[in-house]
Write a structure and sequence with these properties.
Helix content of chain A: 25-40%
Order of helices and strands of chain A: EEEHEEHEHHHEHEHEEHHHEEH
Largest sheet of chain A: 8 strands, mixed
Radius of gyration of chain A: 21 Å
Shape of chain B: globular
Radius of gyration of chain B: 20 Å
Strand order of the largest sheet of chain A: 6-7-8-3-9-10-12-11
Oligomer: heterodimer
Structural class of chain B: alpha/beta
């Protein structure tokens, strides 16, 4: 199947002034097929959110971007805002972590969805109100509740409303950036179930950005692990867990407690490198438990491995496994 | 509003009790009452066998140094203007203890070593903004243990930290526990509770609905709420597909507590009598109890 959405060598630099810059995203390439779910995981500061803001053309003016974002094979980044705007919300929709708090407090939920529909020329008046009701029902909110204000909704309901708004223009890709992070575990489960059913029922492709590996393990088909602005490993979620080809992937799973698996999780020592100076060798080398001489000298490239996966680790050249 | 309604538990020396539940269930209020940071309207709080429920602030003060708290957000709980040394020394100054300046400096260094910020010289003169999140939380813990408390309340101590450093901070609490510190950890993260707690108490709408040894509560939950809560915890192995038993809606708030069993409107196995009976905790194994009429 060909990719619905493809990122090709996306780079993002932030101008820090005085000739300094931060290379936040360092050549990220991703592919998302129709109806599939891809998890983008990593620690804070690894560039996940910058990557999605970059692909949606939502970065501030201090950022410079290079690379291509292909939607059905067409580069939507090429003409800047001009070429992205027609696709934002219409093809690519986003739900942010704080989306539930981004609703306008002085407008009813229905009025906000209607406004979004009218703004994008999708429908207006009575038709838009009817569509708003459908969207609310699709996310599990009785249509009649649309007449209420956001403060009359619980956190989980507001997040559902934010998802309904994102779906207003029938996008083919939903980008969800930490959509459940601020929610309780039961409400998180409700939202994950909703995302799961939306993908199934509407053929929506999902790009899920999160630091929470278990959420990705349960919801996504594939995952891409980011570290220091680049993807260090990607592949099917089962393969990443059971046969990681980058030590960072393995250590991240080992740092994650599991409800029923005995044994205490183990931290990864150290912290990610600064991205405002050039990196020598492998960015993960100072924290890696398997590093050897070559790792300090040569930056490993992301290489295709058997089993529909990629990893950026020299160990794949010398040993069978990085674990 | 009855935020906490008839909660009982005990915490022994060197024990880690995890108080788990969703937001609004009363876990933080419970922890704050333990420290008398909020005043309970009834009940009894005993510390080292002595009732402290109604002792005055003057009498409470010397006890406070034995019971300390670590908050969720090390970005907010540390004063940005204080160096690490000043932040860890502050409790000693407030409680007018720790001896001379040199002796206090020694206690500060010792506390930093115990939280593994070593060598202490590397950290003493730094400010919070020069530290990572994990290091900040370690400084907050150092400031909490510098007085040599016997009880540490840790309110979501790792939820603001990156996954890669959470385990280290939890392992640190675990070592302090092994050294005899009693730890009351408030968390919404059942996986963390399962891995680090000796005992787990599950709260729902101001009540403890189940408590027992951590392993037993997780492997053999007795209360329908605990069962549902555990079923929705995402597992890290994609092959361990969870079969979530998702409860509809959200917990009502504490001003509208349902009649009978407070969980019955959301309970998947409720019986007609659950509308009337407000069940007490009843034994469900050795040192394990659940508040459900179905527990035999």
């Amino acid at each position: 199947m060909s990719a619905l959405l493809e990122l090709d060598e996306l780079h993002v630099w932030f101008d820090l002034g005085e000739g300094r810059e931060l290379h936040a995203v360092q050549g990220v390439s991703l592919e998302l097929e129709p109806g599939r779910r891809l998890g983008l995981v990593g620690e804070s500061g690894c560039g996940k959110t910058t990557t999605v803001l970059g692909l949606l053309g939502l970065l501030p003016s201090t950022a410079s971007v290079s690379g291509r974002v292909l939607l059905n094979g067409v580069d939507i980044l090429a003409g800047g805002e001009e070429t992205i705007r027609p696709h934002r919300w219409n093809d690519l929709a986003i739900v942010f972590q704080g989306a539930m708090n981004a609703l306008n407090p002085v407008q009813t939920v229905e009025a906000q969805i209607v406004e979004a529909l009218e703004l994008h020329g999708r429908s207006s008046g009575r038709a838009a109100r009817a569509r708003s009701g459908e969207l609310l029902e699709a996310v599990g909110i009785p249509a009649g509740r649309g007449a209420r204000y956001p403060h009359e909704f619980s956190g989980g309901m507001r997040q559902r409303a934010a998802i309904a708004m994102a779906l207003a223009c029938n996008p083919s890709v939903l980008v969800a950036d930490e959509p459940t992070t601020a929610l309780d575990v039961m409400v998180q489960a409700q939202i994950l179930e909703l995302l799961d059913s939306l993908c199934r029922d509407f053929g929506l492709a999902l790009l899920l950005v999160t630091h929470d590996l278990p959420v990705v393990a349960q919801l996504c088909d594939r995952a891409a692990v980011m570290y220091a602005g680049e993807i260090v490993e990607q592949g099917p979620v089962e393969a990443l867990f059971h046969d990681p080809r980058h030590p960072y992937t393995r250590l991240l799973f080992e740092a994650t407690p599991d409800l029923l698996v005995d044994g205490a999780p183990v931290s990864i020592p150290g912290s990610p490198p600064r991205l405002d100076r050039p990196l020598a060798g492998c960015p993960f080398q100072p924290r890696c438990d398997r590093a050897y001489a070559r790792c300090t000298e040569e930056r490993p490239l992301l290489r295709t491995l058997a089993g529909d996966r990629e990893a950026a680790c020299h160990l794949n050249d010398v040993a069978a496994v990085a674990g | 509003m009855r935020a906490v309604d008839g909660v009982s538990f005990s915490l022994g020396t060197g024990e880690l009790l995890a108080l788990v539940g969703e937001s609004g269930c009363g876990k933080t209020t419970t922890a704050q009452s333990v420290l008398r940071l909020v005043e309970p309207v009834g009940g009894r709080i005993a510390f080292r066998g002595r009732e402290i429920t109604s002792v005055g602030e003057r009498e409470l003060r010397p006890l406070r140094r034995h019971m300390q708290i670590v908050y969720q957000d090390p970005y907010e709980s540390l004063d940005p203007r204080l160096t690490v040394h000043a932040a860890v020394e502050e409790p000693l100054r407030i409680h007018r203890t720790g001896g001379s300046k040199a002796e206090r400096a020694e206690l500060v260094r010792d506390a930093l070593e115990r939280v593994e910020l070593t060598p202490p010289e590397l950290f003493l003169r730094r400010y919070p903004h020069e530290l990572s999140g994990g290091q900040r939380q370690r400084v907050a813990i150092a400031a909490a243990i510098v007085l040599g408390p016997e009880l540490l309340v840790a309110d979501e101590p790792v939820s603001m930290l990156d996954v890669s450093v959470r385990a280290g901070v939890l392992a640190l609490l675990d070592r302090l526990r092994q050294g005899g510190l009693g730890v009351l950890m408030i968390t919404h993260d059942l996986s963390t509770a399962a891995r680090f707690a000796d005992r787990i108490a599950v709260m729902y709408l101001g009540r403890i609905v189940e408590q027992g040894p951590a392993k037993e509560v997780v492997a053999d939950p007795q209360h329908p709420y605990t069962k549902a809560l555990l079923s929705v915890v995402p597992r890290r192995d994609p092959r361990d597909r969870t079969r979530p038993q998702i409860l509809k809606g959200e917990a009502p708030d504490a001003v509208r507590i349902p009649q009978g069993c407070r969980f019955h409107p959301r309970c998947p196995v409720a019986l007609p009598e659950c509308r009337d009976v407000d069940p007490d905790l009843r034994p469900a194994g050795a040192d394990h109890a659940a508040a459900c009429i179905l527990v035999s």
